[in-house]
Design goal:
By secondary structure, the chain is α+β, with helices and mostly antiparallel strands. The chain folds into 2 domains: about 180 residues, Phosphoglycerate mutase-like (Rossmann fold), CATH 3.40.50; about 55 residues, no CATH class. It is built from 9 helices and 14 strands. Helix 1 packs parallel to helix 3. The longest helix has 18 residues. The protein is globular.
Length: about 260
C-alpha cells in the first residue's frame, strides 16, 4: 500500500483559492502526475485543494473524490473560556473586546518547549490545550475515517500497526493541507500531532510518500520515503513558497 499526501498550492486564504504562484505550482505538479502513479485520488472540499487537484486530474483525465474529513484540521480553542492559554497563543487578536478563536496547532515554541506533555505520544491527548478544545474529538473522527478507507483496501488498524487482511500495492493520493497531513502521519507513526505540526513545514504542492512495510506476514507499518518533496518546482524553475514557514531568523524576512 502506498500513500501520497499532496499539499495545495500557494494559498490565497482570504478567498480560499490559489494565488497566481499557486496556479503555476499546481500546473508543474500536474506535469509529473502520470509519473507519480497517483492511483485512486481524494481531495479536500476546500477551494485551494480542489484547484490544485484539478490540474492533475485534468492531465490524467480523471476525477478525485471529495472527502469532508480531508479539510484542514479545524480544531480550535476559545481563549475567552481559557485565558490562561494566551501563553500558548500570544499573538491572538481581539475583536469587539473578545479573543478570536485560534487553531490549536499554531502554538508558540515558548509554550510547547516547557510543556512536554504536548509532544508525548500518549499524554498529548490530556494536555491543557486539548482539554480546552475539540482537538481529540476531531482527531479521532478524521483518523477513524482515514482508517476506514485503509480497511477497505485490506489494512485494518490493530494497536500500533495494521493487520493485513488483503495485500495491496494500490496507491491512494490525498490532495489536502499541512495540518491534516500531520495528523495522518502522527496517527500512522504513533506520535503526537503537535510534534509534527511544529517540526515539519510541508511546502505548497509538496509530495509526501508513505508505504507499508510488512516484515512479518500479516502485520504492516508505514514508513516515509519522501517528506515534502518539491522536485517538480525545482525542475520547473519555480521558487518554493514559504507558506507554512516562519522567518529563519528573528531579524530576517518572514512571518513572526
Amino acid at each position: 500500500m502506498r500513500l501520497l499526501f499532496i499539499r495545495h498550492g500557494d494559498p490565497d486564504y482570504v478567498h480560499d483559492t490559489l494565488t497566481e504562484k499557486g496556479h503555476r505550482e499546481a500546473a508543474l505538479l500536474a506535469e509529473r502526475a502520470e509519473a507519480l502513479q497517483m492511483g485512486e485520488c481524494f481531495v479536500s472540499p476546500l477551494g485551494r485543494a480542489q484547484a490544485t487537484a484539478g490540474y492533475s486530474m485534468k492531465k490524467l483525465g480523471r476525477t478525485a473524490k471529495t472527502q469532508g474529513w480531508l479539510q484542514e484540521f479545524p480544531a480550535s480553542t476559545d481563549l475567552n473560556e481559557a485565558p490562561h492559554l494566551l501563553e500558548a497563543f500570544p499573538t491572538t487578536r481581539m475583536e469587539d473586546g473578545k479573543y478570536v478563536p485560534r487553531i490549536v496547532w499554531d502554538i508558540a515554541p515558548a509554550y510547547w518547549s516547557v510543556h512536554s506533555e504536548c509532544m508525548d505520544p500518549a499524554r498529548w491527548r490530556d494536555c491543557d490545550i486539548c482539554r480546552n478544545s475539540d482537538t481529540v474529538e476531531i482527531y479521532d473522527h478524521v483518523t477513524g475515517e482515514f482508517d476506514r478507507l485503509l480497511a477497505e483496501h485490506g489494512y485494518v488498524r490493530d494497536g500500533m500497526c495494521y493487520r493485513v487482511e488483503k495485500e495491496s500495492t494500490d496507491t491512494l493520493t490525498f490532495f489536502c493541507h499541512f495540518g491534516i497531513t500531520c495528523v495522518f502521519l502522527a496517527h500512522l507513526w504513533n506520535t503526537s500531532p503537535f510534534l509534527l505540526w511544529h517540526s515539519l513545514a510541508l511546502a505548497p504542492t509538496s509530495v509526501t510518500e508513505v508505504v507499508t512495510e510488512e516484515r512479518k506476514q500479516g502485520l504492516a507499518c508505514f514508513r516515509g520515503l519522501k517528506i515534502g518533496d518539491v522536485s517538480h518546482l525545482v525542475l520547473g524553475g519555480e521558487p518554493v513558497s514559504t507558506a507554512a514557514r516562519f522567518c529563519e531568523t528573528f531579524s530576517g524576512e518572514g512571518i513572526h
